[in-house]
Amino acid sequence: MTPDSDPIRITRGQGGQVEVDGTLDAFAGDILRRAGFLFQPSLRGHWVRLPFDLGHNWENEHASWAADMLAAARYPVHLAPDLRTTSPGHNAPSGPRAPAMTAQAPPAGRRARR
């Protein structure tokens, strides 16, 4: 994608569904699939949307996540303001974090195996 190309638009349609419009290459399609979007065949190509009836919060989280991932991959993206779950530039938590593991010396009296 080039910087002057049309943005990928993630919006809530008239029927309440969250859908994607714009030109998508294979990598952008993979990002959207990873975020939970479905690709349904239609007369105009593919209808890219989130599953129905999973609640507005779930839809907003996945739409925001998709927009953040697309932007991180340097795609021009427009997310409808009613779908944004966090303020721009603020990273949403990705889940519980495990404590960092650091290399430690073996206990006293034991030698490290080689």
Structure characterization notes:
With about 110 residues, this protein is an alpha+beta fold. Helices cover about 25% and strands about 20% of the residues. It contains two helices and five strands, in the order ββαββαβ. Strands 3-4-2-1-5 form a five-stranded mixed β-sheet, with helices on one face. A hairpin with a 2-residue loop joins β3 and β4. The N and C termini lie far apart (about 50 Å). The mean pLDDT is about 80.
Task: Chart the SSEs and their pairings.
Elements: E1 8-12, E2 18-21, H1 26-34, E3 38-42, E4 45-49, H2 56-72, E5 77-79
Parallel strand pairs: 1-5
Antiparallel strand pairs: 1-2, 2-4, 3-4
Distance between the termini: 49 Å
In DSSP terms (H or I, runs of 4 or more residues), the helix count works out at: 2
Low-confidence stretches: none
| Strand composition percent | 15-25%
User: How would you classify the helix and strand content by structural class?
Assistant: alpha+beta
Shape: elongated
Helix content: 10-25%
String of helices and strands = EEHEEHE
User: If you compute it from the alpha carbons, what radius of gyration comes out, rounded to the nearest whole angstrom?
Assistant: 20 Å
Q: Could you give a short account of the major beta sheet?
A: 5 strands, mixed
- How many distinct beta strands? 5
Mean pLDDT: 82
Strand order of the largest sheet: 3-4-2-1-5
Question: Would you summarize the structure shown here?
Answer:
Helix content is 23%, strand content 19%. A hairpin with a 5-residue loop joins strand 1 and strand 2.
